[in-house]
Design brief:
9% helix, 285 residues, 20 strands, elongated
């Protein structure tokens, strides 16, 4: 019988994520996958998993899980309290959870998304080669619900000896290097200067699809309609209100608002951990 966790508390939004499903944009399928991929990979490495093995990605409020077998887990990403049957346990390092005990991943003390990796990986059914939940298209497993059972794979190798892991802290300020986008010429020179000189803030309306910002509007010089065109991860799209939106992993593959810039992909992991109100600055790469 396959081992698994019973979901005692699903939290605000807990999803299964791995490296995603790149290469299907022509089918209208976004990449999806863990928003903070370095955190996912580090948690997996500490358990001896493949770096891109499926994990659980929590949002702000964590989750609580009860395994039906003894398992070893790592909780990383956004710092948070970790308890096993009410007793404090390590964050960012392997923790043994006995069968029937409750692993409680608490509310993030900084950042947004914590990652729960388990030795053997989460064994959700793959769709188009990935186990990731895609909130936009609905592919992959649905977000966790209370009482749901999450299957766990068999460990491929022993958990390695513990080492000190270099977990980055969530950003106090989000600095996003950008290159000019394909529709930068739709904006005035003043708007382009504003983009790279003004300070924006992360909007509370951000999600896995896009990080929305609050701040000065960018003035367009072209007022025509833009036919839908392909969108890439990190695209900085400007909707009619003029406030930039940075496309994250569940972004649509096409869009009809102009893309003024594109964020370098390595910077997006920090964007995944930027809480509402975090200052955002765009810099020319």
């Amino acid at each position: 019988m396959t081992a698994g966790f019973t979901t005692v508390r699903a939290g605000a939004l807990t999803t299964v994520q791995d490296a995603g499903r790149p290469g299907h944009a022509h089918l209208g399928v976004p990449r999806s996958g863990a928003l903070d991929a370095p955190a996912m990979r580090l948690a997996n490495r500490l358990l001896g998993n493949d770096p891109d093995a499926a994990v659980l990605e929590t949002t702000l409020t964590g989750c609580a899980l009860r395994p039906d077998r003894d398992v070893t887990v790592v909780v990383g990403g956004a710092p948070c309290p970790v308890k096993v049957d009410g007793r404090p346990a390590a964050w960012g390092a392997p923790v043994r959870v006995p069968a029937g005990a409750v692993l409680d991943v608490g509310t993030a003390s900084a950042g947004v998304r914590s990652y729960v990796a388990v030795a053997g990986g989460v064994a959700a059914r793959p769709v188009l080669g990935s186990r990731s939940t895609d909130l936009l298209s609905g592919l992959g497993p649905a977000p966790l619900r209370d009482g749901e059972v999450v299957a766990v794979g068999a460990p491929a190798r022993p958990v390695p000896p513990q080492v000190a892991a270099p977990w980055p802290r969530p950003p106090a300020e989000l600095v996003l290097p950008v290159r000019p986008g394909p529709r930068a010429d739709w904006f005035s020179p003043a708007a382009l200067r504003t983009l790279t000189s003004a300070t924006y803030r992360v909007s509370p309306h951000s999600n896995r699809i896009g990080l929305r910002t609050e701040g000065p509007a960018l003035e367009r010089t072209s007022t025509g309609e833009l036919p839908s065109e392909g969108m890439v991860l990190g695209a900085v799209q400007v909707p009619p209100d003029g406030r930039p939106v940075i496309f994250l992993h569940d972004h649509p593959t096409t869009g009809g608002y102009p893309v003024v810039a594109v964020v370098a992909e390595p910077a997006l992991a920090a964007a995944a951990q930027a809480v509402a109100g975090t200052p955002v600055r765009f810099t020319l790469a």
